[in-house]
Amino acid sequence: MKDTYNTIALPSPEILYKEKNSKFFGYAYPVTNEAEIKIHLEQLRKQHHSAVHFCYAYQLGTETLTFRANDDGEPSNSAGMSIYGQIQSFGVTNILVVIVRFFGGIKLGVGGLITAYRTAAQMALEEADIIEKTIDFHYLISFDYKNMNKVMRVIKEKNLNIINQRMAESCQIEIATRKKNAENIVDIFSNLFEIEIEKI
């Protein structure tokens, strides 16, 4: 069972690709939702306020993937899909790649644009630090304080990550575990007396 995916650790350094006086600046960002994507695009629009096109593609998710490719005024499918093709060929997700174009006065034609956007996206991804992450499932464990030792023993033995915890009369601990171990962890907690586990 595959329970890992590739993404990038940090935003990539800015790259510049030139073609017939047009300049293509390339950026890759790690993202987990559309709100983050919006923020990066807004920042780039401020940074390059005289640029003509902000073309991008992103892919989100690990098991169910969502993606979008945007040509931002370039001929249909000349920019966004060229960028998305590079995201696919690098095998990364939870990523946004943006190519900012300054028009240099000479038209490149659709073929030229496809090549330019593909190359700039490839250069941005080559500069990025690609890392492997595990697909983690999160669970909430609810129990009375008297059962604390039982719960903590399992967490320690199974090397589970505690995301956060609330300790009072009744206690709740949010844990994360790798997808491939999830079923086993649920079984263990489900079989413990007076302890509830639910996926969140």
TrEMBL record:
Cited Gene3D superfamilies: Impact, N-terminal domain
Annotated Impact N-terminal domain residues: 20-125
Superkingdom of this protein's organism: Bacteria
InterPro entries cross-referenced by the UniProt entry: Impact, Impact_N, Impact_N_sf, Ribosomal_Su5_D2-typ_SF
Sections of the chain in a coiled coil: none
Entry's family note: Belongs to the IMPACT family.
Protein name, entry field: YigZ family protein
